Amino acid sequence: MPHGLEHGTVLEAFRRHRHDVLNHLQIIRALIQMNRSERAMAAIDRLAEWLQSLGRVQQAVFSSAEPVVWVLAGCPHVVVADIVVEQAPEGDAVEQWVAFLTELEARLAAEGRSLRVKLRIGAKTLRVEWDAPELEMADWRDRYPHVDFARG
């Protein structure tokens, strides 16, 4: 069982990940059946990009940040373009990062879009960089003091 996660949380994270991948595959299947091969290829590319980003995160994180991997496995709208881990996270920082990423995923899903992010993990701070100027982060700064937001 991943460090820092309760059994139910791990199972829930795996269920969400499996569900998201199956949804993508069903969409691709439907596009193929409708002879929309260009859209099907684009959907395959998006799914592959997201799964590759999970691989980058999984390879980079310390065991103390495994909950970040699990939450991103259930966040198909968040694509990690780059990740740098400077130090192993300490204290309650990871819990706050997980809460932020979960909220970000919900917001992106509601808007029907994806977001490419760059992550930098330190002992107490997760730096999140993105290029979407329309995505407002001011209200998040107060609620997530262990997350450093930047446009990049």
UniProtKB/TrEMBL annotation:
Pfam families reported in the protein's UniProt record: SPOB_a
Keyword Kinase: yes
Keyword tRNA-binding on entry: no
Domain of life: Bacteria
InterPro entries: Sig_transdc_His_kin_SpoOB, SPOB_a
Coiled-coil intervals, chain numbering: none
Domain SpoOB alpha-helical: 9-57
Keyword set, alphabetical order: Kinase, Phosphoprotein, Transferase
Protein name: Spo0B domain-containing protein
Species assigned in the record: Alicyclobacillus sendaiensis PA2
